[in-house]
Specification:
This protein is α/β, with parallel strands linked by helices. It has helices at about 35-45, 50-55, 75-85, 105-120, 190-195, 220-235, 260-275, 295-305, 330-340, 345-355, 360-370, 385-390, 400-410; strands spanning about 1-5, 10-15, 20-25, 60-65, 90-95, 125-130, 140, 150, 160-165, 170, 175, 240-245, 250-260, 275-280, 280-285, 310-320, 375-380, 395, 415, 425. Helix 3 (about 75-85) runs parallel beside helix 4 (about 105-120) and helix 9 (about 330-340) runs parallel beside helix 11.
Length: about 425
């Protein structure tokens, strides 16, 4: 079986003998619609009041996700701008959360917003990229779980909030969805750290969210904290969402309307398109989905968390992540993620469980996985000493890793995962 998986902006080719190939898992296409047509259909047939009438004469805050999200940014921006042209004004914020605000991709998103506003005649009040390290945040209260909510001042006081949200499985927030564009999206470092400390709680996991249509799958403390934060931020103002599920520049699903209804429908779509139950194997090859899903090791880690249930204890995994932007989105992330992970694994787990710092949940999750598995091989653009300094095994040639597995165990079964940052795997 000859296979090619996304790796950065290219792909990696390798061969697995048919007798050893346990299958390829990747997202399913639900619609077959082109992107522009699917977004138009969603906005033409919203599940609640149309955006045109809802926005007319109102001051809007529009939230657009940052460049680390593999989604149709330009099409979403254009579709929304065309529908809100009769708003009194619109302020756009790129919802970086704790990610790097100053990337070329985020600058391009800002340019796209300005261009779409000019083309539609929208009264653009301002375009901002959230910088969680800025001192210019306004405190709006504290959630019942103790998260001190520090908000980007550009988001305060809108009559209507509009969110363009691409949805997928998320390994601790349950699902990526419009709630994440409020917290962490437009909040300060302290707020994100408080919320993300709940990532260490085993109930904070994929497939569980307060908007889930199944009542038995709603107890996710981190996502519940996000919901409370959103309600504190928006107050009585309505929230309109244009939500998509996308993969490799294809639109799998789209829906528009009030945020709660749209997100619930989106969870159904994510479960249908991107959730799988498979028989566990002892070997797996994982591609997060190429750039930007593997733009750093910090981002690529999601793919391992979302597929870990498919790998037996004592098994081995090969991660294909080019890591064009290195280890992490900023120096603080590197310190609390990578630098911590260079310590002995027991020390990593003990230190983080005792005192959480933002970004350290990545080290915690990696350490848990390393204790359970025999080896995590990484094929990347990172220096080998950097990779192996944090308990991984460098893999210059993925085929040699596969051949080594089969030399050791000729009957080994190898399962392959594409778009792993977006799928959720439940092992049996």
């Amino acid at each position: 079986m000859e296979l090619a998986l996304p790796y950065g902006r290219k792909s990696v080719n390798f061969t697995i003998p048919d007798r050893n190939f346990a299958g390829l898992v990747k997202t399913r296409d639900l619609t077959g619609e082109d992107i522009a047509g699917g977004l138009k259909r969603a906005l033409d047939e919203p599940v609640s009041e149309p955006l045109e009438s809802l926005s007319r004469g109102r001051d809007l805050c529009v939230l657009i996700e940052d460049d680390t999200r593999a989604e149709p940014h330009d099409e979403i921006i254009q579709a929304l701008a065309a529908r809100i042209r009769e708003a009194s004004s619109a302020t756009f914020i790129v919802t970086t959360g704790s990610h790097d605000p100053g990337t070329r991709g985020n600058i391009r998103i800002m340019e796209s917003i300005r261009s779409a506003s000019r083309d539609t005649g929208l009264n653009l009040k301002g375009v901002h990229v959230n910088n969680c390290f800025s001192d210019d945040f306004v405190e709006v209260g504290t959630t019942s779980r103790g998260t001190r909510l520090m908000l980007n001042p550009a988001a305060i006081g809108a009559d209507l909030y509009v969110v363009g949200a691409d949805m997928k499985n998320h390994y601790f927030a349950g699902y990526s969805n419009a709630l994440k564009d409020f917290l962490p999206g437009i909040c300060a470092y302290e707020s994100i750290e408080g919320n993300h400390s709940w990532a260490l709680d085993p109930r904070s996991t994929f497939g569980v969210h307060p908007f889930h249509p199944d009542p038995s799958r709603r107890d996710n403390p981190l996502a519940i904290d996000m919901l409370e934060a959103q309600e504190m931020i928006t107050g009585d103002a309505p929230v309109f969402a244009l939500a998509t599920v996308s993969s490799h520049e294809k639109l799998l699903w789209a829906c528009a309307g009030d945020m709660r209804s749209v997100t619930t429908e989106g969870i159904r779509a994510v479960d249908e398109s991107s959730s799988f139950t498979v028989k566990r194997t002892s070997h797996a090859i994982v591609s997060p989905g190429g750039y930007p899903q593997d733009e750093s090791l910090y981002h690529a880690q999601r793919g391992l968390e979302l597929t870990k249930n498919a790998i037996n204890d004592g098994g081995s995994v090969l991660l294909l992540a080019q890591c064009e932007n290195g280890l992490a989105p900023n120096q603080k992330a590197r310190e609390n993620f990578y630098d911590r992970l260079t310590r002995p694994l027991d020390e990593v787990l003990d230190s983080i469980s005792q005192e959480y710092e933002l970004y350290s949940h990545k080290a915690y999750k990696f350490a848990e996985m390393m204790r359970r598995l025999r080896a995590i091989h990484i094929h990347s653009g990172l220096e080998v000493d950097i990779v192996e300094g944090a308990h991984f095994l460098g893999a210059d040639d993925p085929q040699l890793v596969i051949d080594g597995w089969l030399e050791e165990d000729p009957g080994a079964r190898i399962r392959v995962f594409d778009d792993a940052n977006k799928i959720a795997v439940y092992g049996v």
